[in-house]
Amino acid sequence: MPGLETRLRRHGLDQLPSVHPNLLVSGCDTLGDVRPNRWVVVLLAGAVVAGACSSRGKSLSTSASTARSTTTAAVNLQATDVGVTPTEVRIAVIADVDNPIRPGLFKTAFDGVAAWAAKVNDRGGLAGRKVVVDKLDSKLSPDEYRNAVIKACQSDFAIIGTIAVFDNAVDDLVKCGIPDLPSNPISNEHRTAPNTYPDNPANPAIQVVGQFKWVLANVKGCCAGYWLVPNQPIARESSLEIMNAATEIGVSKVHEIEVAGDEANYTPIVLDIKSRGATFVYDGLDYTSTVRLRKEAQVQGVKTVNAWVCVIACYTPSLLTEGGSAVEGEYVWIYHMPFEEASKVRAIKDYVDYTRRTGGEQGEFGINAYGAGLLLEQAVKQIVATGGPNGLKRSAVLEALRGIHDFTGDGVFGATDVGARKPPGCFVMLQVRSGKFVRVHPSAPGTIDCNPANLQPTHVVQPGGT
User: Fold this and answer.
1) Contacts of 301 by beta carbon, 8 Å cutoff, 6+ apart
2) Most CB within 10 Å of its CB: which of 38, 45, 116, 173?
């Protein structure tokens, strides 16, 4: 752009390549509830913004290509840290996928990170470098999880999107100091590791109870609760913390039962639900468990239950396709905007589009892993804006993450204090109606309930206890 370098130099912004290429076009579009990108302020030179916005009609790939060439042309990109070369940034994602109990269990986490990487690479890369994803399968094994962490520490710049049931061995993770942005840390050890910053922080002493308050207030004839919890110790601990929080605000417990992940016979469980007169049934396992439970309940003609409730893992098309009419009426809460409202939030549309483009499947673990990528992306943008693309270091990312207190993933999530690792308390309640996920609360599309009253201090479950 004629005269641009002179004008930037006059304002001390002559290091144009130190700004991530996305910033050259951010803020041109305002879709739904997406907030204008605050990094546009860094480039508050009228000619830059006007020039970018005047190119709206050009294709995304053309804009990204131009931005990439502008960024790298005048900067000698360097290998700045583990996993960073002049041309690439290696990012790891760890998830339980290949295993005999639940094949493909958390594959959508792989899909979410792949979608994020494709989106970033289309738009100029991360700090001017191509993102290369290493998918590390922890295979529902403590040893495989530890091996995956060690491999990532040795080869990758950061870990994002992790979800592994046996994630409590954190010594190697902490020792190597790699930025760790998991999508769903399960163990308390992982949640509280000093270099771990989830996009949706959790705290065992503070639970999100807004969804239970909504059920109590809005579902008639509820809630005498029957609780299915995983029998795997770490997942069991997490489920019991949720159960304790719910019972403390008024959801009763008529019975609690531990269920194995590979349990196929739900007849005794359903007969027990029926005999105890439960009006609220909470399944803390994955969607496959809910499908089996509801199909058996349909066979047994259970009529007393007014609220069938499933954890976030049920927010997947597979619940609908495999459950069919049996899962009608199921309540599922999520911590982000629904996929069905992609037209309202640009970042959700990006997730849906890039997941399809890369051959992945949408799912709760996928969007959370994608969100972890957005969080890393925001931290890197801060680094590049102040220190240039060669300021890309693990320590710089951790410092940037500590300073992020209002992360939304461009409107995917409610405002989240990532730096303080404070649970946001945000949720959207969905219900399966006519084979589709339908928003029931809050009622307005493009909104999310982040009332502070959604959070509740609660009893912390000790390992092996309740």
Assistant:
1) none
2) 116
Other CB atoms within a 10 A radius of the CB of residue 377 amount to 21
Q: How many residues appear in the chain?
A: 466
- Name the nearest CA neighbour of 168 among 193, 152, 190, 184: 190
CATH architecture, range 88-201+341-402: 3-Layer(aba) Sandwich (3.40)
Distance CA 454, CA 101 (A): 34
Query: If we measure between CA atoms, which residue out of 204, 162, 173, 167 comes closest to residue 375?
Result: 162
Note the pLDDT tens digit of each residue in 361-381.
Answer: 999 999 999 999 999 999 999
- What parts of the chain have a pLDDT lower than 50? 1-73, 463-464
Burial 291-314 (b: 16+ CB within 10 A, else e): bbbbbbbbeeebeebbbbbbbbbb
User: What local confidence, expressed as pLDDT, does residue 459 receive?
Assistant: 61
Token pair listed for 159: 């870990």
What local confidence, expressed as pLDDT, does residue 440 receive?
Answer: 98
Number of helices followed by number of strands (H, E) in the chain: 15, 13
pLDDT at residue 232, rounded to an integer? 86
Q: Determine the distance from the C-alpha atom of residue 271 to the mean position of all C-alpha atoms in its chain, rounded to a whole number.
A: 36
Q: Which two tokens stand for residue 336?
A: 């982000």
Tokens of 44: 């508050």
Between helix 364-387 and helix 107-122 the angle, nearest 10°, is: 40
Tens-digit pLDDT profile for residues 205-230: 889 999 999 999 999 999 999 999 99
In the chain, ranges of CATH 3.40.50.2300 domains: 88-201+341-402, 206-334+426-457
206-334+426-457 is classed CATH 3.40.50.2300: yes
**Residue 309 parent element (H or E):** strand 307-310
Strand 428-433's sheet: what is its strand order? 252-259, 224-230, 280-283, 307-310, 331-334, 428-433, 436-441
pLDDT confidence of residue 196: 98
Average per-residue pLDDT for the chain: 85
Task: Identify the bridge partners of residue 334 per DSSP, sorted by sequence position.
Answer: 428
What's residue 5's pLDDT? 41
- Are 432 and 332 a contacting pair, CB within 8 Å? yes
pTM of the model: 0.81
